[in-house]
Amino acid sequence: MLLKFASFGIKVGRLLKNFSFHPQHTARLLKKMAHSSITCGSKHDPNQLIKSKSPYLLQHAYNPVNWYPWSEEALKKAKEENKLIFLSVGYSTCHWCHVMEKESFENEDIAAVMNENFINIKVDREERPDVDKMYMSFVQAISGRGGWPMSVWMTPELKPVYGGTYYPPDDRYYGQPGFTTILKSLAQQWKENPQKFKKSGESIMAALAQAALIGKGNQVPSASECGNLCFKQLRRSYEPKLGGFSEAPKFPQPVNMNFLLRWHVLNKGSDADLALDMCAHTLHMMAKGGIFDHVSLGFARYSTDEKWHVPHFEKMLYDQAQLASVYTDAYLLTKDGDFARIVSDILSYVSNDLSDPSGGFYSAEDADSYPEAGSKEKREGAFCVWTHKEIQSLLGAQPVPPEFSAGVTVSDIVCYHFDIRPNGNVDPYQDPHDELKGQNVLIVRGSEEETAAKFGLSLDVFRQLLKTALSTMREARQRRPRPHLDDKMLASWNGLMISAFAKAGTVLMEDTYVERAVKAAEFVRQHLFDQQSGRLFRSCYRGGDGQGAVSQIDEPIVGFLDDYAFVVRGLLDLYTACQDEKWIQWAEELQQKQDDLFWDASQGGYFTSPAGDTSILIRLKEEQDGAEPSANSIAVGNLERLAIAVDRSDYHDKAEQTLCLFQDRLAKIPLSLPEMASALLLYEESPTEVVIVGPRSSDLGHQLYREAVTHQRSLLGQVVIRFDSSRPPQDGASFLASRRPSLVAMKPAKMGCDAAAYLCRNRSCSAPVYSPEDLRQLLNSQ
What's this model's pTM, rounded to 2 decimal places? Predict the structure, then answer.
C-alpha cells in the first residue's frame, strides 16, 4: 500500500516527489559525494549521545547536531518546544549512514538548521528494532522501498509526515531536492500550519495501522501444497549457473536453503533431488567466491555482482550464524567435506574476531577501513583486498616443494588459484569510483584439484602449500588498520550463534563447539537476563578493560520477540547437543515469558514488541523472512519442539493459531516466508522423538544418540532425549521427568544391554531397539 502525501495535504510530498535512495541497489554509486562535501573539521562538545553505549550512537556523539537518543527526555522536549522531530535510524557498520554523516551531520550549516527547527533523534536499529520497523513501514508505504539510513520527520506526537532513506546534502545530484532543502521546507510549513501536519500525521498513522493488520485465516494451510508452491517459486528464481536466487546483487538467503534442505528430506524423486542440488551448488559457489573471506574467513553481507565476487565487505554476526547452520545441515545430508570445512572456517572467524572474553558475540565488522596507517579517508574493502605486487612480495620467497617446476613460485600458484592479476581482478562496472582499481578480491574460479593438476602437485601438497600461504597473508593483513567493530552484544543474534555452535558440535562431533555454545548461553543468562523479572534484555556492551568486563546502560533495553524466539531455539539446540536439562528448562521458562509479553490472544501470532511503551504507536507482526528469519516463523518451530519435549499441548495450539494467522501468505506466496513453510512441515509431520534410556556412561547409549542426532530426520526438528532412570535422588529431580513421568518407566529390557532407544510420535512409542542399525531402520520408516 502506497500512501500519497497529496491526499493528506502536505505540499512537501509533491515538492520532493517522495525522493528516496535504496542503498542495496545503488552500491557505491554516490561514494564520491561524501568526499566532495564540505564538512566541519573542528571538535565539538559532545551531544546527548555521549551517554550511550551503542557504537552507532557514539559515532555521532561529536556531531554539531544536537542529537538525542530515543528517550522520554527528547520526546518531552519536542512537545514543550512544539517542534517537529527528525528521526535518523541506522547502524554502526552501515556504509550509507557514514556517507550521510560526513555530508550532512558534520556540516555546520546543516546542523544549525537542524538544531534550530527540529528535535533530532538518533536510533540504532539493532538496539530498537521496534522503532525501526514502525517507521520503516511508513517509509516503505510512501516510497515502495526502504533502507538505511532511514530519515523520518514526525510531529511531537510521533506521527510521521515525511520520510525516506539517504539524502544528499544539497540539490546538485540528479535534480533532486537535497537534505537542506527538505529541512527548510518542512520547517517553514510547520511554522505556517502545524495543525495541517498533525491532521496529516493522524491520517497516515490510521492508514498504517490498517495496513499492519493481518487477516487471520480459518485453518492451517496444507503443508504439501504450501511446500510444493514454495519449491516452485524458489526454482523459478534460482540462478543455475552460479547459484543463488537472484541476479545482482546476490544475498546468501539462508532461509531459502533451510527450506530446500527440509523439503528434500521429506520428499522423493527429481524435485527432491533438485532441491538439494540447488542448495548445494549455491553453497559451493558462495564458498569459492569473494563473498567468502579466504584469508580471515567468514562471509560478507552480500555480493554486488552475480558471480559472488565483489562483496559489500561488512560482516554481520547473524549471517555467520545462519550460514554455519546451513552448511552444517548440508554436510549432514551430503557428507561433503568442503561443507564441514566451511563450517569450521566460519566458527573460527567468529571465535577469533567476534567473540568477547566473557562469552558473548559482537554484532559486526565494518566494510570501510583506512588503507594504511595515517590515511585520512576510509575505503570500502581496504582491509580485505590485495595487489598482485603485494602477493609477489609476501610469497615469492617462500620455500617450494621439490615437485615444483623450475621458475614457479608459491606466489604464482596462489595468484593462479585466486585469480590475482597484475592490474586487479575487479570489473570496473563494480567499482565506478576506482576504489578497487588495481586491487584483487580473492575468488576461486576453478578448484583445488584443477590448480594442483596444473602445477603437477598432489592434492595434499597443494593444500599444505595453500594453508601456509594463507597464514602468511593473514599475518600481513593483521598489520593493516582494522575495520570498525560493533561490539554491542544482542540477545537475538547470540541466540542464533548458540544454535550454530551447538549444531556444528553435534554433527561434526566437535566438543569444543558445544563448549563454546554453553559458554555463550551462560553469558546470555548472566548479562542479558533479569533473574527477578524473568525477562531478557536486548543488548549489552563490551567493557573498557578488554578482559571480559561487560557494561550495561542505566535503563537496559528490554528484549523483543526475536530475542526470545532466537534464544529459545538456541537453548533447544544446545540441549540436543549436551543433554543438560537446565537448558531445556530455561527454554520453556523463556517461552512462557514470550507468550506473556508478545502473544496476541485475539488474532494469534506474536507482536514484535511488548505492550506498554507509549512511544510505539503500532505493535507490528513480522510477516516476512528476510536477512533474519521472522521471529514468528522460529516461534512455530520452537512451540512444536517444546510441545513434545515438555508435554505441553497448549504450545501446539499456539503454533496452530500462528500458522492460521499467516494462512493467506503461506498459501499464495510462501517464498516470502520459507522459514515458516519449514515450520509448517514440522507442524504437519509432528516432530519425531527419540528417547535414549540408560546411564550417560553407556557406550551403546552414545552410539544410539549419535545415530539419532546425525540422521537426516534431525533436520525436521526431531526431539532427542537421553534419560537415565537409574539416576540417584541425591543428584536432584529431573526436570523432564517432572513434566513427563512416563520417562521413568522407559528402561532397557534386553539382557546384556545397558541402553535402549524408543521412537515416539503422536504420543505413541515403539518397542525399544538396541542397536544404531535398528534405530536407523525405524527412523527411515518415518
Answer: 0.93
